[in-house]
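Subject: Sanity check before I submit

Could someone independently write out the structure tokens for this chain? I want to compare against mine line by line before I put it in a report. The sequence has 120 residues.
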Amino acid sequence: MKAEVVSTYRGGMWSWLFQRITAVLLIVCLAIHLVLTHFANIGELTTDNVAGRLAHAGFTAVDIILLAAGIFHALNGLRMVLMDYWFTSRSRAMGLSIVLWVVGLAAMGYGTWALWPWIS
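---
Independent answer below. Compare away.
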């Protein structure tokens, strides 16, 4: 029996592994975020409450991890679906990967910029 080789332009092992890792990170960080946002600080949601939570480095770190894991998980899933149906050649798959990395880095930069007043 011949073993199939998983080619990198059709997905690859690392893409599969990071999809699972980011899924776990999303579940854990989202649970932490929801507990700290909705249960630990019951009351009126104001700018001061949000600023107080984001003043803690741990909460900001959870938000950044949640942002990075969400972006990667979503774009990697989109990449896999598009590669299954439309981007079947190696050059098109590489072009798609580059475009999605640029979009992901731009989204990460924008999200980090939105949190920047509490990071610095």
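---
OP: Matches mine. For the report I'm noting this point. The chain is about 80% helix and 0% strand.
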